[in-house]
From TrEMBL:
GO terms for biological process: regulation of DNA-templated transcription. The keyword DNA-binding applies. Keywords: DNA-binding, Transcription, Transcription regulation. Signal peptide: none annotated. Pfam families: GerE. InterPro entries: Sig_transdc_resp-reg_C-effctor (IPR016032), Tscrpt_reg_LuxR_C (IPR000792), WH-like_DNA-bd_sf (IPR036388). It comes from the Bacteria. It comes from Flavobacterium swingsii. One of its GO terms (molecular function) is DNA binding. This is Regulatory protein, luxR family. Residues 195-260 form the HTH luxR-type domain.
Length: 262
């Protein structure tokens, strides 16, 4: 059983920091493709920021970041790992650092040609512009790993305040989209450690359909969006309900959100 202990900011900095500088002039331009594509799969209001492990700082952020957090764009672009932690719920913050560290380690272990195809989803509670905690989805749509293991990555954070979780959701999922391998982690209530949990495998096509369902699209609209037939979409939905043991689309979406399967 894989178990991860929470990381303090000091431990995270010690593990992640690399003394070799990155030869990237403009980080926002470097990740422009991921920034442009973010709106295609966002399921709510979102913002992004870019950090690197040489300076251990946030080096760029979206202009709307002050609309979804209590702090200004200028404050974010001078922030550190500690600043990120200060925005997270105390019960979640050190597990988020641990999850981010694990995600980077898992990606580094893969061949270069597969690194860009790993999807990282992390649930946590984070402050909104009114200084109130709400659930967010933390994703890493882009990660650059240098030859010397110096890294920088773009983090996308989506507001999930329109959702109400009946219980604490699965903290993190890692998905290798090429091999279609999923690893799910949750916080064990008794041990307060991250442990593996067994959840159904969701294919790439099923994930696409679930994202569109989460945006409120019905089967005809999804079929048009994905250039598939109505019956194909309905078959995928039926398979998803069987996998998740849910009877309706509402139950399916609730299960998916609670278990971080999108």
């Amino acid at each position: 059983m894989n178990i991860l202990n929470p990381l303090s900011v000091e431990d995270f900095n010690e593990i992640a920091k690399n003394d070799n500088p990155l030869n990237i002039g403009n980080y926002e331009v470097f990740f422009q493709k991921q920034i442009d594509e973010a709106s295609n799969y966002a399921v709510g209001p979102y913002f992004w920021f870019i950090g690197n492990n040489h300076e251990m700082k946030i080096v760029a952020a979206s202009q709307n970041i002050n609309e979804l957090t209590p702090f200004s764009h200028e404050r974010w672009t001078n922030g550190t790992a500690l600043f990120l932690v200060e925005n997270l719920h105390p019960d979640d913050s050190f597990y988020v650092l641990s999850a981010l560290n694990l995600a980077v380690q898992k990606i580094e272990e893969l061949p270069v040609e597969r690194q860009a195809n790993v999807r990282v989803n992390i649930y946590a509670r984070m402050l909104n512009a009114l200084n109130e905690y709400r659930w967010v989805l933390i994703q890493m749509p882009g990660l650059y790993i240098g030859i010397d293991r110096t890294t920088c990555g773009i983090i996308m954070i989506t507001d999930l305040s329109h959702l109400s979780f009946k219980e604490k959701p699965v903290l993190m999922t890692l998905t290798d989209k090429i091999a279609n391998q999923n690893v799910y982690f949750n916080i064990a209530p008794d041990e307060m450690k991250l442990v593996n949990v067994d959840l159904p495998n969701i294919t790439k096509r099923e994930q696409e359909i679930l994202k569109l369902m989460a945006k409120g699209l019905n089967s005809p609209q999804i079929a048009e969006k994905l250039f598939l037939s109505y019956h194909t979409i309905e078959n995928h939905k039926r398979n998803l309900r069987q996998k998740t043991n849910s009877k309706t689309s509402v139950e399916l979406i609730n299960y998916v959100w609670s278990n971080n399967l999108i």
